[in-house]
Structure formats: C-alpha cells, structure tokens
Amino acid sequence: MGMKVTRRKVLAICALALLGSLTSAGPASAYNFKRSLSTGDSGPAVRALQVRISGWYPNEEHKAFYLDGQYDRMTKVAVANYQKHHGLAATGVANESVFLALNRLQDPDGSTGHFDWSEFDQNRNSGCGAQANAYAGTFGGGMVAARRAKRNVRRLMWRLEAVRAKGGGRPVGINSGFRSLPYNDCIGGASRSQHLYGTAADNRMAEITNHRQRNIAMRSQVHGIGCYSSQTHNHFDLRINNAALSSSRSWWWPRTDSQGRHLSDEGSPCWGETSNTSALRTSGAVLRAIELATPGAGSLVPSAAEIEAFESAGEPEDLNGAD
Predict the structure, then answer these.
(1) d(Cα 52, Cα 17) in Å, to the nearest integer?
(2) Greatest CA separation for the chain
(3) Closest Cα to residue 156, out of 107, 126, 184, 197?
(4) Three-state SS for 236?
(5) Among 139, 109, 143, which residue's Cα sits nearest to residue 123?
(6) Is 6 helix (H, G, I), strand (E, B) or coil?
(7) Which of 51, 97, 173, 308 has the fewest Cβ atoms nearer than 10 Å?
(8) Is residue 71 within 8 Å of residue 40, measured between CB atoms?
(9) What would the pLDDT profile of 208-261 be if each residue is shown by its tens digit?
(10) Cβ-Cβ contacts under 8 Å for 70 (sequence gap 6 or more)
(11) Quick check: 97 and 88 in contact, CB under 8 A?
C-alpha cells in the first residue's frame, strides 16, 4: 500500500512450497532498458515500457491503450505525460531520465515500488474449505496459469502506480486481488470475475473519497471500474488487456445520475454517494475492522491506518455475484 505491505509474505512462501510446481508463478524480475526508445521502435522493450506508462495515456472517448510493442503516437503521448508529472522535458522520447524515474518505481523481484506481490495473491478465508484455501498466498488455481496471472498482476500494479501518483502519492490498500476458482466460488464472486485472471483489485485510497479515486482511475486507463451500494471498496480491472476473456474486453464504468452520483449496476447510488453511508451492509470482518480502526475502515475519507485495516480484513464473506 505505500509502504510495501507484506502481511501475507510468510503465508505465501509456505503455500508455494506446499503446492510446488502446480502453482508456481515462475521467475519475475525488473526490466533493464538498454537504450532510448522513440516513435517507430518496436519489440519487447517497447512493450515493457508500455506496461509501465500506459496509465499516463488519457482516455479519449474510451480509446484503449494496447500493449502491442509498437512505439506509436499513443505511446509518445503517454511518455510525455509521464515526463511532465516528473518534471522532465516532455519530449515523448523514453530516454535515460525516463528509465531512471521508472527504475525508482520497480523492485528487483518484478513488483513495483509501492505494491508487493503478497498484496495481490489469494487471501485465506476461515469460512472456505481446504480446496479453496490450498491456493492462499499463490497465483494458482485460476482461469490462467500462475505465470500469466502474475504477469497480469504486474500490469495492474503499474496502472495503480499511475492512479496513486495522480492522487498525490497517497497509499492504496488492496482488499482482494487474485482468486482461484474454488476460492472465488466460496466467497460468491462473479463466475467470470477478472480476479480469476489477476487483472483486478478491490481497493481504496487513503485521504481520498471513493468517488474521486474512481475519477482518477478513469484518467488512467483503468477499463473496469465497479462500485457498490453495500460495499465500501472500488473495483478496478484491466479487462481490455485480458485476452483470455474476450467476452468482457470493453469499458465498464459506473453510470452517473443527474446529481453527478456514481451508480452501481443495480442503479443505486454507490457507497459514499449519499448521506446515509453509516448504514453499512457488509461483512463482519470489515465491520470489525471499521470498529478497530480510527475512526473506521468505512470512513468516507479514510486515513492510512483505516486503509491498512481495510486491507487486512480481506474480502466480504459473500460478494453476491459481484466482480
């Protein structure tokens, strides 16, 4: 969340050792850019750059930024916006100064500066059976191989880094990341959930309302943005970049009513959009976290401590088919 939270690191190591090659996500490491990149270039280095700067391309009438390895106009615009944010000359050329800034945001293990693999691997839930919890701390058992799920998570981390930066560098807490099929079924997640592919994260940002965080995500190439009338989190995903689920490769954002409020899929104002937000209908785990935090993980503008409590609580006990 802003401090490289590793709350399930030991669990992840133990689970990976137990499951062995069945759920191994394979090696992951930081990318080493060897030369400047500019318009007309193509290949793996350009694709690696696009993964890192895609969140800086503005949405022009829902125009998706594809990770195709081609240094085109969109890539140049994204690089220029990244340069502007970091006080660099906005040339649109990915040069040494761009790579130095990117290097400060990546770890040797392939994760990013403000997010850790253990924030996105599967949670453990005492209400689920052994089959579901066997994948706790891993990226196995989903709709794609663990290696691909982890690759998708890395892409999501970089998109969230853009959201975090545009939000003033405030911590982002991940409540739910990757889920295996039996785990997603246990907690009542959507049958075609993006979480099964490692392309989604349920989250909140410290010191910022959910509504404002969603607006930032809309400017950061986040394709799927979900909010709910009875849950305190935002759902973000990269469904257009998820080639393994072609039926969902389109924009999914909340509708807005005449008062400017974001609406859930059911047409109700999302949590935090009305004045009666104290009537939370959520899981006991999150409610206990709210009670223990100061003043609670359900505050409209949560503190960093509240975000950490929200993250530690894990998913609600029943998502009722939500993604």
Answers:
(1) 30
(2) 55
(3) 197
(4) strand
(5) 139
(6) coil
(7) 97
(8) yes
(9) 999 999 999 999 999 999 999 888 899 999 999 999 999 999 999 999 999 999
(10) 42, 46
(11) yes
Tell me, what amino acid is at 298? G
Q: pTM for the complete prediction?
A: 0.88
Nearest CA-CA partner of 162 in 115, 95, 209, 224: 115
Give the Cα separation of 94 and 257 in Å (integer): 41
**Which tokens belong to 246?**
């072609």
221: left (phi over 0), alpha (psi -120 to 50) or beta: left
Q: Which has the minimum average pLDDT: 241-245, 284-288, 314-318?
A: 284-288
Which phi-psi region, left, alpha or beta, contains residue 282 (left: φ > 0; alpha: ψ -120 to 50)?
A: beta
CA gap 273, 92 in Å, rounded: 38
**Do residues 304 and 252 touch, judged by C-beta distance below 8 A?**
no
- 235 forms bridges with which residues in the sheet? 202, 226
Task: In whole angstroms, give the CA distance from residue 42 to residue 292.
Answer: 51
- Which domains does the chain possess? 9-27+113-313 (3.30.1380.10), 31-105 (1.10.101.10)
CB contact at 8 A, 306 and 296: yes
**Pair 165, 205: CB distance under 8 Å:** no
Whose CA is closest to 264, among 299, 286, 222, 233? 233
Q: What does the block give as tokens for 320?
A: 């009722």
- What is the chain's length? 323
